[in-house]
Design goal:
heterodimer, A: about 850 residues, alpha/beta, Rossmann fold, Purple Acid Phosphatase, chain A, domain 2, 6-stranded mixed β-sheet, 5-stranded parallel β-sheet, 28 helices, 34 strands, B: alpha/beta, c-terminal autoproteolytic domain of nucleoporin nup98, 2 domains, 7-stranded antiparallel β-sheet, 7-stranded mixed β-sheet, elongated
Chain lengths: ~850, ~475
């Protein structure tokens, strides 16, 4: 006997003890697919027959069952299940997770059960148990369908049981193996003229045979390999419902189209079945056309509608089409709730000012990776929202009939010949100031950032954000960061080069160069490191472009923020001026035009250090110099006086004199990076990456391109400074030597040092893993600010050289991958929450404890 | 760090006997955190000076520290250089007998008041030079302090937070050294080692005879014990033993249960505000309430006393405040605790956990949100969480002119991003009510001034 069951269902085995349910289950199903009450009893009590544990055992069984159903896994419930009340909870769970349960009754007869139980020492219960179970089972048999089982199979002899064969069938909605390409067509509503024109536009050839005395027939030939998918609502309201139905039915019959059910079809079917229907919303026109078509036509339509599915899932699960939309947890499952949702959507129970039901916007809450294309709600323009697209552009109301070409994602539409039906609610709502996605993104959801999160980046393995780090990031994000709409990127931290063993040096350029040479990089670029503060500059050509692309409504043209997402300038007017000047310079230097964009995201260093770090300098660095200087001066004087008295000070005077020279060098270093600034007077910006522009994250361009392109800004506005660079080609040793000499010269003159990067933006090493995007190599005097005035005394260097770089480097890699992922998502116009989760992730990672001196 | 002790007592070289140090040698001492030396730059019959020099091992100080506070200490900082508890420890090791007032050779002299001068540098004067006078003058010292400039080249950087302190007077050496031993760390207000119970004993021992009657007693104790409240309370209790003078006022805060706090303290503005909000929530008949931006749970402390509030949820972004709130909750009986929970959340994100409540309170919260992000709070709270009622309080900027300490245009709190006049608040309330379908009524909070209104204002939104 062949038992056809859906590939996703709950199989409820029904049978007395000893009937052979477990054996049957093991024969036909994976061991992991079976949840057994005996095993659960054992799991909670160490004894499969401990009846006292039954309550807890079933709690475990139901919990396991529910989790599996949530994950869309076929599950077999191996328990006696002989009473309706035993089955009820399983059926409730099946309904909750949208699957039709299957009943398989295994009833080889009481004698067989007794016989088996007798041979098992652990089943020492009396014969009355099986007798009661069998009679309960017999009473249940007739009502099983009514209880809610989709399939019921009853196996009553040993032969039937032995010969049974389980056949798993795909769900009707499951078209995952159809990869397309598709042309998904919105609500037709009897607008057959527009439909025919649209199909022609899409390259379909239409032949209509309409000879008197014969049925009207359509023969539609799609372009090679393509298929049409109708989102339903073929009927009602429009002038040619009959023809529309004929065309769609003929295409579906010919296998050149799929169609899902719309609410208007459901209503037409009700009328066709002779049930009581209120004739409204254009149904009268459909009735006329159906009557005109005669009984054969009516019968064909009734059968056609009866066979329409709630939704289809296509292309390996990447696409779902449903009339009114579908939630993620309903896709490729079956239940009456799903059918209702797919036809009507979800309403809030309230009516709007036009008396129409207010629809709950399920798409706003949609978080699935599967694209959902749907119709039902007429909109003026189609817009993607959270991976969903409504393509009902109200043709019958005088709008247009729209098709989405998939996977090309192109929209093709045909304007309505006229207003066929006056809409209750005007279609021509004022065009949105922001796009639907921007409107929706305006307020992010805390569930998208809080708690432990695992993020994926196309540039690395998945990245885990720990809960406590997310909690810390939330505080910074909420209290200090700029509007998340500007926050499309945060820069990664940067590791120093390996520690040098050269006397007097903690960091030396030779180490930085060798790091990449060992990793197999052939060319690196050395960039002068500026002692300022890191800044991200996001800006558009004008405030209109900023609104369009970033969805901001404040009239701002851009923003400048720090590496932790805070506004760089405390003063909004200064921010606005920097943005305006940056945009003007980008315009004048032709960068906007060259990259065919009207916005840019730049990575830069803004000087002086004191502009951003004034408080740090006042409260920390300068006081250290003052304190050290004052104490040392007194100590030196006391020792000198003592020595004068002829006391042996054991070289301590020299030691303190030396110490003082180091403190003076420290104070000079601090002073060097501070200069007074009034407004923007004295501020200097050195940009070094053009991170992204419309449609592009510029990771394919070399750093040489980035630096050369950005250097052009300096020619147009003194606010910008070009950064000095040297390229080292490891095949030409002289370039290496000259880079080292260059570093020596720069740092001797008080420079902070340099940053070394592989010339290619994305350089990969062993196992194709991304290399460090950059390492820094800081000058001897600059490092006093980091490690203290006397860090370079040999006894201190010995200890400082033991620093470990792994944590810092791992952090840099993860932040780099996440930052780029944020940009990729922004450029691909993904919802803001998808960009934000990456940026938030970078901020969270930054709260991991790492030696801040690295 | 540098400390210098001079005397003009004759023979001045007796200072060597008092310090137990030979004036003609360099004395060296190894400490866990560096090295200390003592030498005598001058040693004549008429005048003798001893100099204590401390050199802290900067690299050793940082190594081995990680996590939490330790991270910040890894940045370059003044710990190795500024006179601090390091100096007190070095004094305790180098010249212990002198501090205790013991001298093998000159015990009588140790017990005698001598003409002494002390110089300490660089001494942090956190709390301003005024504090130096308040700390030293009640002890009978005359002091001078000379500011240390921040930078020799950049004169525009002004004075550093450090001074060179000179104390002179005729006093017993041990008294003067004990004062310094305690007051140097007090002025620094930071400690380099863990403050444990024995620190309390040290304080009481070194403070013997002078701390009890010092007018800045509470400040000294609390700074010396680095604000550890139980130790501070214990110390003050032991110092005030036998005194009748209301020890409660100094000690009450932490001791009192949250539940009693409101009743016993004189009514202050914030208390008044919280009472008004609690009262309004009660009048609204709300049972399930949200305290959005609950901080450490002060409003919740009021709400739990009312059985009407069956479910109270505090939402706060700061994990530190949440931890404190949770701590306070721990002390309550299970039955009360079961009605309260705290969530980390941020009002500018939509949050499904907050939907379906009867009422929400935002007490002095909105003014901490950047104006450009306020719309997100409006959408999240009024649009998405959409409780039946919302209570919002915020300062009344009109009233600010009445605060003497507030200069024009300045906000009451450094983190305030705006402060609204009554008209601005009223406009905002009206817009919110219209957009999200609420009725709003406004109430002043606090004593009303005839032209500037009350210090705070409250909007009550109801669906």
């Amino acid at each position: 006997m062949k038992l056809d069951i859906p590939e996703f269902t709950v199989v409820v085995l029904i049978g007395a003890s000893g009937s052979g349910k477990s054996t049957f289950a093991r024969k036909h199903f994976l061991s992991t697919e079976i949840v057994s009450s005996d095993i659960c009893r054992g799991l909670v009590s160490d004894d499969e027959n401990d009846q006292a544990a039954t309550g807890d055992a079933f709690d475990l069984l139901y919990a396991t069952l529910e989790i599996r159903l949530k994950r869309r896994k076929l599950t077999v419930v191996d328990a006696t299940n002989v009473r309706a009340e035993d089955r009820k909870r399983i059926i409730t769970l099946a309904k909750k997770w949208h699957t039709l349960p299957t009943a398989i009754v295994i009833n080889p007869g009481e004698d067989v059960c007794h016989e088996r139980n007798r041979s098992r020492p652990d089943r020492d219960f009396g014969p009355h148990v099986v007798r009661n179970q069998t009679s309960a089972l017999r009473r249940s048999l007739r009502g099983l369908k009514r209880e809610g089982f989709g399939h019921v199979y009853i196996l009553e002899t040993a032969e039937e049981i032995a010969s049974a064969c389980v056949n798993r069938m795909k769900l009707w909605t499951d078209k995952r193996d159809e990869k397309g390409p598709f042309d998904i067509i919105g609500d037709v509503h009897g607008c057959c003229d527009e439909l025919e024109a649209l199909l022609k536009k899409l390259g379909y050839a239409i032949a209509k045979t309409d000879e008197p005395g014969h049925l009207v027939r359509y023969s539609v030939t799609p372009p090679e390999g393509r298929k049409a998918v109708f989102v339903g609502d073929i009927v009602d309201r429009g002038p040619r419902t009959g023809d529309s139905l004929r065309l769609v039915m003929d295409m579906v019959d010919a296998g050149t189209a799929h169609c899902v059910v719309g609410n208007h079809e459901a209503k037409a079917e009700k009328w066709l079945s002779g049930r009581d229907v209120k004739i409204a919303h254009g149904l009268a026109l459909t009735i006329d056309d159906l009557n005109a078509g005669g009984d054969t036509f009516k019968a064909r339509v009734k059968k056609f509608i009866g066979g329409l599915r709630s939704h289809y899932m296509f292309d390996g699960g990447r696409l779902v089409v449903a009339h009114a939309g579908i939630k993620q947890e309903m896709q490729n499952r079956a239940s009456s709730a799903i059918r209702a949702f797919c036809m009507y959507g979800e309403t809030t129970g309230e009516n709007d000012e036009f008396g129409l039901p207010v629809r709950h916007n399920w798409a706003a809450e949609y978080r699935g990776d599967t694209r959902v294309v749907y119709g039902h709600t007429p909109v003026l323009e189609t817009e993607w929202l959270n991976n969903t697209l409504c393509i009902d552009t109200g043709c019958v109301f005088g709008g247009k009939l729209t098709a989405l070409r998939y996977p090309e994602m192109e929209l093709v539409s045909e304007t309505a010949r006229k207003v066929h039906c006056e809409p209750v609610r005007p279609l021509a709502l004022p065009a949105g100031f922001l796009s639907a996605q921007q409107e929706h993104d305006d307020t992010l959801d805390i569930a998208d950032v809080l708690g432990k999160r695992i993020l994926t980046s196309r540039h690395s393995h998945s990245i885990t954000i720990r809960e406590e780090n997310a909690a810390a990031a939330l505080e910074v994000m909420v209290r200090f960061a700029v509007d998340p709409k500007w926050l499309i990127y945060l820069p990664p931290t940067m590791s120093p080069c390996e520690t040098s063993n050269e006397p007097g040096f903690l960091e030396h350029p030779a180490e930085a160069l060798s790091f990449y040479e060992r990793a197999g990089v052939r060319r690196v670029i050395c960039e002068e490191k500026h002692m300022g503060s890191r800044a991200i500059i996001v800006f558009a050509r004008d405030s209109d472009a900023a609104r369009r692309r970033f969805g901001v409504t404040t009239g701002a043209q851009g923003h400048v923020y720090t590496r932790s997402g805070r506004p760089f300038f405390s003063n909004a007017a200064e921010t606005a001026e920097v943005i305006a000047r940056t945009a003007r310079a980008a315009e004048a230097s032709g960068i906007f035009a060259e990259l065919d964009t009207d916005w840019l995201c730049l990575d830069a260093e803004i000087m002086p250090w004191s502009a951003k770090a004034q408080a740090l300098i006042e409260q920390q660095y300068a006081p250290v110099g003052a304190a050290a200087g004052a104490g040392l001066a007194l100590a030196q004087a006391a020792l000198a006086a003592a020595a004068e008295r002829g006391i042996d000070t054991h070289g301590l005077s020299e030691r303190f004199a030396d110490e003082r020279r180091r403190v003076d060098a420290f104070r000079a270093a601090v002073r060097q990076y501070c200069w007074p600034v009034t407004g923007l007077e004295g501020v200097c910006i050195a940009p070094f990456h053009i991170l992204a522009s419309e449609g592009m994250v510029h990771t394919e361009q070399s750093h040489t391109w980035h630096m050369e392109t950005l250097a052009r800004l300096a020619a147009h506005d003194p606010l910008f400074q070009a950064t000095r660079t040297r390229v080292v080609d490891f095949d030409r040793p002289e370039t290496r030597g000259s880079a080292i000499a260059w570093w020596m010269e720069m740092t001797a003159a008080g420079g902070e040092g340099m940053v070394v990067k592989p010339e290619q933006f994305l350089a990969r090493g062993a196992q194709n893993r991304l290399l460090q995007p950059a390492v820094k190599c800081r000058g001897q005097n600059y490092l006093r600010i980091i490690y203290g005035p006397d860090y370079d005394r040999e006894e201190n260097l010995v200890r400082l050289r033991k620093r470990g770089l792994n944590a810092k480097r791992s952090l840099a890699s993860r932040e780099f991958a996440l930052g780029l992922e944020a940009l990729e998502r922004f450029v691909a116009r993904e919802p803001l929450r998808r960009v934000h989760e990456c940026v938030f992730g970078v901020l969270a990672l930054e709260s991991e404890p790492v030696d801040p001196r690295l | 760090m540098y400390l210098e002790i001079s005397t003009t007592h004759r023979p001045a070289t007796d200072l060597g006997f008092l310090l137990h140090k030979n004036p003609n040698r360099l004395h060296q001492l190894d400490l866990a955190f560096g090295k200390a030396w003592l030498c005598f730059p001058e040693a004549t019959e008429g005048r003798c000076t001893a100099a204590l020099i401390l050199d802290v091992d900067t690299v050793g100080l940082v190594r081995g520290k990680s996590g939490g506070d330790g991270l910040m200490q890894q940045y370059v900082n003044d710990r190795p250089y500024a006179a601090s508890s390091f100096l007190s420890v070095a004094m305790g090791r180098m010249i212990r007998e002198a501090i205790s007032g013991r001298s093998k050779e000159r015990q009588e002299l140790a017990e005698t008041a001598l003409p002494l001068t002390i110089r300490v540098a660089p001494l942090p004067a956190r709390g301003g030079p005024d504090l130096l006078h308040r700390l030293f003058e009640p002890l009978g010292h005359s002091i001078t302090c000379e500011p240390i400039p921040m930078d020799a080249v950049r004169r525009d950087w002004g004075a550093s937070p450090y001074v060179t302190l000179m104390i002179s007077g005729t006093i017993r050496l041990s008294d003067l050294l004990s004062h310094l031993y305690v007051l140097i760390p007090v002025l620094d207000a930071r400690k380099h080692y863990y403050v444990g119970d024995d620190e309390l004993e040290k304080l009481l021992a070194r403070g013997e005879g002078w701390l009890k009657s010092h007018p800045e007693r509470e400040l000294i104790v609390s700074r010396y014990l680095k604000g550890r409240s139980t130790l501070v309370r214990e110390a003050l209790a032991r110092l005030t033993e036998g005194e009748d003078a209301e020890p409660e006022t100094a000690l009450d805060n932490a001791k009192k249960d949250i539940a009693e706090e409101a009743i016993e303290k004189p009514l202050r503005l914030h208390d008044h505000r919280l009472d008004a909000v609690a009262d309004a929530l009660k009048r609204l008949g709300a049972a399930r309430v949200l305290d959005l931006g609950c901080g450490e749970g002060k409003l919740i402390g009021r709400l739990i006393k009312e059985k009407q509030f069956a479910e109270i949820v505090g939402v706060e972004v700061s994990s530190i405040a949440l931890a404190r709130a949770a701590d306070r909750l721990e002390r309550l009986p299970d039955r009360v605790r079961a009605r309260v929970k705290f969530l980390q959340g941020a009002l500018i994100y939509r949050d499904a956990r907050l939907r379906g409540y009867d009422a929400a309170a935002l007490v002095e919260v909105i003014e901490h949100i950047e104006p450009e992000r306020l719309i997100h709070m409006e959408r999240a709270v009024f649009g998405d969480a959409a409780p039946r009622a919302v209570i919002v309080t915020t300062p009344n900027a009109d009233y600010n002119v009445l605060f003497e300490k507030l200069s024009a245009g300045q906000f009451r709190h450094a983190d305030h991003r705006f402060e609204w006049t009554r008209a601005e608040f009223s406009d905002w309330c009206a817009r919110i009510a219209k957009t999200y379908g609420y009725e709003v009524s406004l109430e002043p909070l606090g004593d009303i001034h005839e032209s500037h209104g009350a210090p705070s204002q409250m909007g009550i939104f109801c669906k």
